Amino acid sequence: MKVYRLSTETFIPASLDTVWNYFATPINLNEMTPPDMSFEILTDVEGVKMYAGMIIQYKVRPLLNIPMGWTTEITHCEEGKYFVDEQRFGPYALWHHQHHFEAVAGGVKMTDTIHYAIGMGILGKIAYAVYVKKRLEGIFSYREKRVKEIFG
Description:
The protein has three helices and seven strands; from the N terminus they run βααββββββα. The protein is of the alpha+beta class.
C-alpha cells in the first residue's frame, strides 16, 4: 500500500495563543472546510478544547454528495505546539495529520503534515491520481484562504 504525504505551511498574523485557541477548538473545523463537502461534526464538541484521547465523529460528502462517516482520535496534544489526529474509521486506509504551530516574527507559522493511504490496490492508485490528490490540495488551499480571512 502506497503512503502519500502532503505538507503545507501557512503564516498567520496573530499571537500563538490566539492561533492555538482557535485550532484547538474542534467546532472551528466547520469554518475551514469547503462547503461542498457538507462537513458535519456529530460529536458534541461545543465549548470543548482538544486533548489527547479525544474521539470526534463527522459526516462528510467528499464525492458526488455521498455521505461518509469519519472518526478521528486526537492521539497527541501539546498545548501551544502541536496536535495529531488519526483516522480510526473512514475513507482512508491510513490518515495521520500533524498540526504544528511555531511563533515567528509577526505571527505564527502553522505546518500541516499528512501521511495518508487510500488502499484498494490499483484502484486506489487511480483514485489518487485522478481525484484524491487534487481534492486534498484543494481542501488545504481553501483552508489557507479561510485562515487569512479569519485572521487578516
